[in-house]
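During the reporting period the student researcher (J.K.) took over the structure-prediction task from the postdoctoral fellow and processed the backlog of single-chain submissions. One of the processed entries is reproduced below for the supervisory committee.
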Amino acid sequence: MIENVVCISDTHFGCQLALCPPEVILDNGGIYKASRLQRKLWDMWTEFWEDFVPKATRGKPYIIVHNGDIVDGVHHGSTTQISHNLEDQKKIAIETLAPRIAHKNCKGYFQIRGTEAHVGKSAQEEESIAKALGAIRDEIGNGARWELLLSIGAKKSLIHFTHHVGTTSSAAYESTGAYKEMIEGYTEAGRYKLTPPDVWVRSHRHRNIQIEIPASDRGNAIVVVTPGWQLKTPFAYRISLGRSARPQVGGIVIREGEEVPIYVRNCVWSIENPKTERID
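J.K. obtained the following structure tokens:
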């Protein structure tokens, strides 16, 4: 019985400021070598899977959920991509994720659809990659889906995944959009007499936050927004929070426990500040 879920998101494969293998052979035979900061991201990626995940899951089987924005795409006239050939971006995604999905403790992979500006209309690029990676298909045969309601463990804990969540330009209000997801989830469940999720998982912001409130005998209700695997792009400097904040890199593990019905372990790193210049 699976009682662990490993969730990552916002990998933006194909961006020069995102996760990338140390060396990539491009479509026409050229070679792209990862930057210094990308190599740091790769070290974090390796530590996440080889140290954090085994500890957080207690060495037991798990499901992997990628919660959207798997590639960077060609968007908003940007020039920060490794290649504008989407086949190159897909190749990076598959080469990076396939070994993690093939791990003996991984018992299934789900792909959530992200932002169309990055992954194509109707998230067609994510659909293609999901099928190549052997993602668990939905009831109509799609490899990628807009949302996922997943039941895990003996207690049948419910987790709801979808990519988007409200954003803000102020750190003081980061909890607002996340908390609204929980309240609206409870409202809709009550309206239609459904069982509400125990955990709501959102992404898109690239910033990690978790909120818990008491929720009867099922333990705490939890909403969590995942960190990403992309550093600050030129777009981040347009908003006040983006200008002042450090990148947040990592993922989460959701686990059905014994004393605590369900809980979340967050793994978050950052990157050092730019070099301080001094003129004497």
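The committee noted the following: The domain at 4-269 is CATH 3.60.21.10 (Purple Acid Phosphatase; chain A, domain 2).
J.K. will present the remaining backlog at the next meeting.
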